[in-house]
Design brief:
Radius of gyration: 20 Å
Strand order of the largest sheet: 1-2
Strand content: under 5%
Largest sheet: 2 strands, antiparallel
Distance between the termini: 57 Å
Number of helices: 5
Number of strands: 2
Order of helices and strands: HEEHHHH
Structural class: mainly alpha
Length: about 160
């Protein structure tokens, strides 16, 4: 069944939203089997519950928005990303893989600091002040909030950081 570019794009969004709902809804149901709180604060089901709930609601909202929008007729839409976007996506995937491999040996803070700087540079951020503040807040700030205030254990690493 041949479809125009805009209809194919709309169908692609709908399929992607349904796939995301197929991930978030079972995760939400599974998270209900764990307690949301315990004596120390957030329980083992706290983050899976809220993340899957937020993901399911956003996926449903995007699905409704895409479904109700009118497709533009006669417009040529390229479904393939351009070279710059493809390189950015590959760069982010490589950075995520490296961060996942370095969490245990280096700890959360020393892994997230260069990860955030790298991802921001890959995505085109150029302000040194904004990059520095975001990296410090995303690594040392997030670690302090989760480790000390919420009592969520995060990897410390071989250097004790």
């Amino acid at each position: 069944m041949p479809t125009s570019g805009s209809k194919a794009l709309k169908l692609g969004w709908q399929v992607a939203c349904l796939c995301l709902l197929g991930i978030f809804v079972p995760a939400l149901v599974t998270s209900l089997g764990y307690s949301l709180t315990d004596a120390l604060g957030p329980g083992p089901g706290f983050f899976p519950f809220w993340l899957s709930l937020i993901g399911a609601v956003l996926s449903a909202a995007i699905l409704v928005q895409v479904t109700l929008a009118k497709a533009a007729e006669g417009t040529a839409i390229s479904l393939a990303p351009d070279r710059r976007m493809a390189l950015q996506a590959i760069g982010v995937l490589i950075a995520l893989t490296a961060a996942a491999a370095l969490f245990e040996p280096l700890g959360y803070r020393l892994t997230m600091l260069p990860f955030i700087v790298g991802v921001l540079l890959i995505l085109g951020a150029r302000s040194p002040i904004a990059i520095t503040l975001t990296a410090l807040a995303g690594s040392f700030g997030v670690f302090h909030v989760f480790y000390h205030w919420l009592k969520v254990p995060l990897p410390i690493g071989a250097f004790g950081m």
